[in-house]
Amino acid sequence: MRKLTSYTITFVIGFALCALAVNLSHGAAPFSLSGPESKNLVLTRLEAPAPVHDRVGNETIITKAAATIEPSIVTIDVESKPIAVQSPFSGDPFFRRFFGDQTPFGDQGGRTQRTKGVGSGVIISDDGYILTNHHVVKNAATVKILLSDGKAYRAKVVGADQTTDIAVVKIDAPEEKLRPAQFADSKALEVGDMVIAAGNPLNIGTTVTFGIISALGHRNSEVTGPSAISNDIIQTDAAINPGNSGGALADMEGRVVGINEAIVSPTGSYVGIGLAIPINTAKDIAYQLIKNGKVIRPYIGIGYVPLKAVAKDDRAQLGITIDGDHGVVVTNVYSGSPAEAAGLHPYDVILDANAQQLTDTNSLQQVIAKLKVGDRLVLRVDRKGDTKFVSVKVAEMPAQFGDGSGNDDQNDQMP
């Protein structure tokens, strides 16, 4: 009896295994539904609503930062003033032989055209002031602001500063509940801090990218802007692309630490090096633009180069007797400038400025930049071996000069 029971169990197990093997050999999943039952099961799963998950406590710091800054980001559409465009045939001798200066393409063979551009901006007040880059609104005939809710408004340019690449525009939208961005202290930034870049790259809509502060204090010869006069440029690897200019670089609390300005790239495309203007600098410039319509800069009116840039063999010919490399050499004293009134001469070597030793041209720029119009700048000067002190009364920089020294020759001042 026990043997019969054992045989029976063995037979049942064997039969089941054979049936399973046959089923698998025909490509079917074991114990799966087939036909209408399988189709209905799939359709039921597809139309069922996804389970609701409570996100409270599940947000990342990036999520929170993006939600904080995005309502303060705007898109800026700009149409330029008419720009003269020269015909490619206007200088062709063959065409000039028949038409002279009056070519079939118009007077002097030229025409005008308007260009369009897109950038980003950051709302800084609930009554419509918006911070952006100078190059975004440069030569603008019309400026249109697109808010995060899709509404569009005409804007006027309050002021723009080419030296720092900062501009302020304003919209009149009393019915809107604008969300001004909050500011952090950019002086407190450290390399490795996490940041997000918010803007409208390539005009695809407001976008947030993530990265870190890659470097601080760069002086970069590839770009213009604040790095041309100071060493506090912010470098980040958060993706910045065309259209991001004027947008926000924000910390993990959604507070603005910088205004996105440019990229450094051999191809013109993003390669991981983005640059931003520190918000402390941008705020100072915006304050002056809103208050005065312009930036008032201290000015003494000289051109100069680092002493170390002057070869030892050339120094004797210029009357320079100093062997060391500290200081700057005056290359030009502008007519009517404070420097001329104070008695500075070309080829004077400025060793100290307000008791601060000068190591390069940038160190003198930084001393001048901290002064106000009417302040006194005391310079310790070496003139053909004689040391003397020269007191210069700082004036307001004329509009035609591009830096705090009054030097309009960028080869002397800027890399």
Ranges with pLDDT <50 over ≥5 residues? 24-31, 220-231, 403-415
Computed structural class? alpha+beta
> What is the CATH third-level topology name of the domain at 298-413?
Pdz3 Domain
Strand order of the largest sheet: 1-6-7-10-9-8
| Helical fraction | 10-25%
Explain how this protein is built.
Among the domains are: 187-282, Thrombin, subunit H, CATH 2.40.10.10; 298-413, Roll (Pdz3 Domain), CATH 2.30.42. The protein is 22% helix and 32% strand. The protein has helices spanning 2-25, 36-47, 61-69, 93-99, 134-137, 279-292, 312-315, 338-342, 361-369, 410-413; strands spanning 73-80, 83-86, 102-103, 106-107, 110-113, 116-123, 129-132, 140-146, 152-161, 166-171, 194-199, 207-218, 233-236, 248-250, 256-263, 274-278, 298-299, 302-306, 328-333, 349-353, 356-357, 376-383, 386-393, 395-396. The strands form six sheets. Strands 1-6-7-10-9-8 form a six-stranded antiparallel beta barrel. The termini are far apart.
Key descriptive features of the protein:
Pdz3 Domain, 32% strand, 10 helices, 415 residues, 6-stranded antiparallel β-barrel, alpha+beta
Fold blueprint:
Layout (H helix, E strand, L loop, with lengths): L1 H24 L10 H12 L13 H9 L3 E8 L2 E4 L6 H7 L2 E2 L2 E2 L2 E4 L2 E8 L5 E4 L1 H4 L2 E7 L5 E10 L4 E6 L22 E6 L7 E12 L14 E4 L11 E3 L5 E8 L10 E5 H14 L5 E2 L2 E5 L5 H4 L12 E6 L4 H5 L6 E5 L2 E2 L3 H9 L6 E8 L2 E8 L1 E2 L13 H4 L2
